[in-house]
Write a structure and sequence with these properties.
single chain, 227 residues, mainly alpha, Leucine-rich Repeat Variant, 2 domains, 66% helix, 0% strand
Amino acid sequence: MGSPMGMKDYLKPLIHAFESNGNPERAAGARKYLKNQFDFLGLAAMDRRQLMKDFFREHGYPRPAELREFSLCLWNLPEREYQHTAVDTLRKMAKKLEREDIQWIETLIREKSWWDTVDGLASWIVGAYFRRYPEQIPPVTERWMKSGNMWLQRTCLLFQLNYRETTDTALLTIFIEKLAGHRDFFIRKAIGWILRQYSKTDKEWVRSFIDAHELSGLSVREGSKYL
């Protein structure tokens, strides 16, 4: 932000642009797609990102110290496009995150949770954060795994989604073994997804892992797709 205005005033032009370009018919379809859990304005992702680009070109990006307020303000708005905008902006600015920022990032994972925000937060934001602060991985992931919160646990599985050859397979093994018997679709799907993704880097490791572990049928089907 180039001026000392408050965050709500800073966001007003973006909110106006989003509301002016909404499509009620598209919004109804989006609500149905996410099981009527969230309201939508009806912006296609491409259009939303163009409006974001225009806004940031004119008004500037939030400063690193403002990312928390920026993200939480968008998270508190009812329409889902605002949460998607927060995730996209954090992805662009992930290298500027500070050590203590994981506390409010956890809030974003916990609140208004569904795969459409959690997966981006996990693979783009938390993944980048842990690359920057690897010493935070043990205490944070241990807390998240013990939390009983499915979305925090899914984040533990997926934050290494883009790590490729730097994937910590020992840590991934611990997470999968602890969650292998989980009944929820989103955990079983995530186990398969991370195995499938890592199989692009090391097929033999994934093949041996699947053979050696009792996983759900969904996890095995997903994890085996590229084997």
